[in-house]
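>> received
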Amino acid sequence: MPNVPLQQKILTVVQDYKAIKSNRISLRVDEKVRQIQTGSNGWILGYNMTTRMTGWFPQEVVQEDDQESHEAPNGSPQ
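>> returned
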């Protein structure tokens, strides 16, 4: 299966990446990216929350941001 839909996660860029194809997006360290889906080849489709661009990038340039979640943690006021 080439693409697997995922629950959208917020990722933090840990290494700059320069896009070289039109379906990819450039990323800079500390930018936040919303993960849309992942491919079976080590690439992630995501939305760059800074540049508002959507495209593919290699998974090794980002890490999951545990502090940024779309769900309120237990014990948070509602």
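>> Residues 68-73 have pLDDT under 50 and may be disordered.
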